[in-house]
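User: I've been trying to design a sequence by hand for this structure and keep getting stuck. Would you show me what you'd pick, starting by listing the structure so we're on the same page?

Assistant: Good idea, let's start from the same input. This is the structure you sent:
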């Protein structure tokens, strides 16, 4: 049997698939969009700045030659996430893959318009809310995939239910680690809740990538060490490889509730595999975004 017999688009394995990528205007997110567009996917990216989003859309379109859409929203704002979800549902008749890639690091504590700690709100709650708002479309497009870009920092994380927002004590590293652990816990709980729907959920560590990550509010050690570390970091394209693999590999269609590093499954931390914590975090997140109350 030839490749063409098993795949109607052997040269464009993602043709006919729509992929939505958050944080898609730079770094790993844009590299993910570029890679999937080159595979024939209809790529839609989400950025915070309209000008940068337009530039990224044009760049991705030039590479892939297919349909590319851009959406603009500040994902740290729940009202903007809800507006974004409405726009996406209006413009994208199907979503085959949702890649929750947006994230950042802030050394000092910032508060969002919703009164939440910025790292937790952007790195985790935005993904939780957006995914849930798009779930019906993902189910209708099944087999579909939700891919959460986490980090090996999850292994150093702890979910502090008594101080999720870092009001009592704040550390940029602690907030970041907590948000990445939350990403993995969310992935596993989502996979459990989606059993039988043909929508899968996977998490990944992209590696240490040479991007502008943390540049808005770096800690002192970053200013000193980053110039020395950059030659040893992955390029954004290499950092995006695992996201692209999880979005496109046919053999992963039924794989769910797993964590990947370098495109291979790997056991995540014991804390991330605590089902009781995952269920409690889901309930608390639901309360923080008013999901059950507002639908």
């Amino acid at each position: 049997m030839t490749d063409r017999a098993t795949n109607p688009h052997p040269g464009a394995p993602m043709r006919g698939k729509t992929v939505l990528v958050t944080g898609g205007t730079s770094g790993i997110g844009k590299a993910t969009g570029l890679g999937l567009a080159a595979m024939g996917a209809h790529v839609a990216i989400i950025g915070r700045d309209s000008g940068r989003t337009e530039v990224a859309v044009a760049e991705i379109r030039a590479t892939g030659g297919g349909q590319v859409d851009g959406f603009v929203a500040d994902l740290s704002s729940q009202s903007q996430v809800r507006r974004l979800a409405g726009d996406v549902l209006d413009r994208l008749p199907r979503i085959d893959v949702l890649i929750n890639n947006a994230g950042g690091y802030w050394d000092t504590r910032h508060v969002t318009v919703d009164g939440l700690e910025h790292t937790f709100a952007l790195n985790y709650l935005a993904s939780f809310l957006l995914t849930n708002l798009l779930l019906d479309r993902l189910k209708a497009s099944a087999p579909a995939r939700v891919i959460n870009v986490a980090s090996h920092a999850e292994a150093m994380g702890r979910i502090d239910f008594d101080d999720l927002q870092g009001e009592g004590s704040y550390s940029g590293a602690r907030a970041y680690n907590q948000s990445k652990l939350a990403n993995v816990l969310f992935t596993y709980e989502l996979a459990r809740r989606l059993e039988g729907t043909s929508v899968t959920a996977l998490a990944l560590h992209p590696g240490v990538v040479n991007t502008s990550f943390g540049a808005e509010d770096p800690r002192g050690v970053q200013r000193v060490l980053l110039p020395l570390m950059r030659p040893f970091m992955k390029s954004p394209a290499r950092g995006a490889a695992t996201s692209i693999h999880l979005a496109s590999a046919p053999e992963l269609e039924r794989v769910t509730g797993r964590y990947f590093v370098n495109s291979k499954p790997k056991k995540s931390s014991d804390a991330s595999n605590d089902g009781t914590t995952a269920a409690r975090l889901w309930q608390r997140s639901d309360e923080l975004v008013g999901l059950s109350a507002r639908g």
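That's my pick for every position. To get oriented when you compare it with your attempt: The two ends are 47 Å apart (CA to CA). Residues 1-9, 209-215, 220-233 have pLDDT under 50 and may be disordered.
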